[in-house]
Amino acid sequence: xxxxxxxxxxxxxxxxxxxxxxxxxxxxxxxxxxxxxxxxxxxxxxxxxxxxxxxxxxxxxxxxxxxxxxxxxxxxxxxxxxxxxxxxxxxxxxxxxxxxxxxxxxxxxxxxxxxxxxxxxxxxxxxxxxxxxxxxxxxxxxxxxxxxxxxxxxxxxxxxxxxxxxxxxxxxxxxxxxxxxx
Length: 182
Fold this sequence. Notes:
Elements: H1 2-28, H2 30-63, H3 73-78, H4 100-115, H5 117-128, H6 131-149, H7 155-177
Helix pairs in contact: 1-2, 1-7, 2-5, 2-6, 2-7
């Protein structure tokens, strides 16, 4: 509880510090301030939304019963086709009468069935099209179009705001969604 309070205090301090800096840009130029603020807010919201969406996805997958089989991950990476195993199965026995083309076709079919790309895509789609990601991207696009249509778009402050927003969003997402010492 105490760590959460400290994290919340640090998060609020970071947000207030950056916003105070951005408000001081208003004294320099209103268009500079507006470009910087829109880019900053959109990039921070995009990163926070993405972090939150993927955190929810990972939490759901960890909580689900859908686990890969109990094979050693390092063995699977080092020897994906089980070429160096000590036991010989009937599939691996050398038979000189087997046609090479049929073996290749069977192996390709087996690899295609193992990929399950549609299944993996379907599992990660909620994180990709989450409302927490779509709305900030809409804010970025509409903010850019609004600045451009009003002829007040300046790329230097806009890109600067994006880069500062990316840094702030990274640290905010880390402090809010990634728990330390779980």
